[in-house]
Design a protein that fits this description.
globular; Arc Repressor Mutant, subunit A; 8 helices; WH_DNA-bd_sf; DNA-binding; about 65% helix; mainly alpha
């Protein structure tokens, strides 16, 4: 990199956003062959991660955890429901609230997905401490960018 590029705030090489964008795209591409075996897209996989942890979660809470609005989340959930992995019902305490439950097929998929994080760590390489540091930096950036 030349001295001129180092000083240029508009040089692509100096953009943190481009590094994050490139890394995120590469990560999703690396997940694709693993998720194809489960017949899940990356966003569907993220939703399933939350649902495997929180049975009976509300649609609203799922959206908050995934940082997705209802316009994005609803079609994703309809596809998961169409695959027979999730059912959407009404809360027993508040009829207005939609809750999500995994089907037997959705629970069975959990077993098949257990090896994915380890496989991804092998693909990416690096030390566990580096992954934790990267995650913390990304979380911090997200928090800064979403301050009211």
């Amino acid at each position: 990199m030349s001295q001129n590029e180092e000083l240029n705030p508009l040089a692509l090489e100096n953009q943190v956003c481009f590094s994050l964008y490139s890394a995120a795209n590469a990560m999703v591409r690396a997940y694709r062959p693993l998720l194809d075996k489960l017949d899940l897209t990356y966003p569907q996989y993220l939703a399933m991660l939350v649902l495997w942890q929180h049975q009976g979660i509300s649609v609203k809470t799922l959206g908050e955890q995934l940082h997705l609005d209802s316009g994005t989340l609803t079609p994703l959930l309809k596809r998961l429901e169409g695959k027979g992995l999730v059912t959407r019902g009404r809360s027993e305490t508040d009829e207005r609230v939609r809750v999500l439950h995994l089907t037997d097929a959705g629970n069975a998929l959990h077993e098949l997905a257990k090896e994915i994080p380890t496989m991804m760590r092998c693909k990416v390489g690096g030390e566990p401490q580096e992954f934790m540091q990267l995650k913390l930096l990304c979380d911090k950036a997200y928090q800064y960018l979403n301050k009211a």
